[in-house]
Structures are given as structure tokens and as C-alpha cells.
Amino acid sequence: MKRPLIAVLNGPNLNMLGLRQPEIYGRATLDDVEQVCIQAAERLDIAIDFRQTNIEGELVSWIQECRGRARGIIINPAAYGHTSVALLDALLSVGLPTVEVHISNIHRRESFRHHTYTSQAAIGVICGLGVRGYGLAVQALYDMIEDEDER
Ligand code: DQA
């Protein structure tokens, strides 16, 4: 049987991880984040499609492409999470189990970061656990897919 695919989508400025405000985001780079996801996926024998873009519409298109292709979505929408109804609508339109990840604890930061539109489409949100949050998200989605397949 084909291995289930989980899409890991990253939004704006996450290509700057490692350089960008390390006191908030740490020293890990986006390549390190991808490795965290790949290691979790190998352990669970699933496939990962890991991407990053600075363009909102590209994220919308990537979410739409997940329909019929991926079993779940992990998204760090970055700043677009706080602003984008389009991303929320895209996630709602594909109806796939989604976990939202933020590296930093958005609730300990400026009040404009406390709300995300995208979280309304998410099963759960992981924030403040650094890049290890991505590994936890892969495990959580895997468990949910397994539960669904058993039903
Ligand atoms: C972030 C938190 C957002 O508020 C911010 O705009 C980001 C990164 C995080 O991973 O902690 O770009 O999503």
C-alpha cells in the first residue's frame, strides 16, 4: 500500500530561521525543521512533502493541491495566520485534518499574535515548543490517520 502523505507547509519569513530573531525562534534553520519532519516520517513510515513560501496565494494553492493527495496538513502560516481569511477558507475547503504549528509561544507575545484565523480550521495548535513542535505534529496527525483507518 502507498505510504500516507502529510504536507508540511511553511509561510513567510520561515526561510530566515536561524538568522531571524534567534532569541525568539532559536538557531535551527528551515533545513533543520525539515530534518525533524523527515526523521519523524521515517520512524512512522509515512511520506512528507515539505515546502516554504513567502507568498500568500501560493500557500492557498498548495493547500488546495492537498485535496485527494495528502491525508493531513501541518501548517506554520507564520504572520499570515494572524491576517488571512483566504488561508482559513482554503483549509476549510479541503477538509483535511490540520495541525497548526508555531515555533514561538504566540500567547506570550504581542496581542496581535494571540489570534489566528487558521486555527479555526485546525484540529489542534502546537506553539512555543520550538522546532520540536513539528515532530509532535507529525506524530499527532499520524495517530489520527491511524484511528480513522481503523474505524
Ligand atoms: C510564528 C509566529 C508568528 O507570529 C510570526 O509572524 C512568525 C512565526 C512562529 O512560528 O512562532 O513568522 O508563526
From TrEMBL:
| One GO term of the biological process aspect | quinate catabolic process
Q: What is its EC number?
A: 4.2.1.10
Q: Does the keyword Thylakoid apply?
A: no
A single GO molecular-function term is:
3-dehydroquinate dehydratase activity
Q: Which domain of life is it from?
A: Bacteria
One of the Pfam families matching this protein, by short name: DHquinase_II
Question: Which annotated residues bind substrate?
Answer: 76, 82, 89, 103-104, 113
Identify the InterPro entries for this entry.
DHquinase_II, DHquinase_II_CS, DHquinase_II_sf
Look at the named UniProt entry and state the broad enzyme category this protein falls under.
lyase
Q: Any idea which residues are catalytic in this one? A: 25, 102
The record lists the membrane-crossing segments as none
Which chain positions carry the site (Transition state stabilizer)? Answer: 20
* Pathway, per record: Metabolic intermediate biosynthesis; chorismate biosynthesis; chorismate from D-erythrose 4-phosphate and phosphoenolpyruvate: step 3/7
Q: Which reactions are catalysed by this chain? A: 3-dehydroquinate = 3-dehydroshikimate + H2O
> Which keywords does this chain's UniProt record carry?
Amino-acid biosynthesis, Aromatic amino acid biosynthesis, Lyase
Recorded hits in PROSITE patterns, A to Z, give: DEHYDROQUINASE_II
| Assembly behavior | Homododecamer.
Q: Which family does it belong to?
A: Belongs to the type-II 3-dehydroquinase family.
Q: Which HAMAP family match?
A: AroQ
Q: What task does this protein carry out? A: Catalyzes a trans-dehydration via an enolate intermediate.
Q: What is this protein called?
A: 3-dehydroquinate dehydratase
Its source organism is Brytella acorum
User: What phylogenetic lineage does the species belong to?
Assistant: Bacteria, Pseudomonadati, Pseudomonadota, Alphaproteobacteria, Acetobacterales
Gene field: aroQ
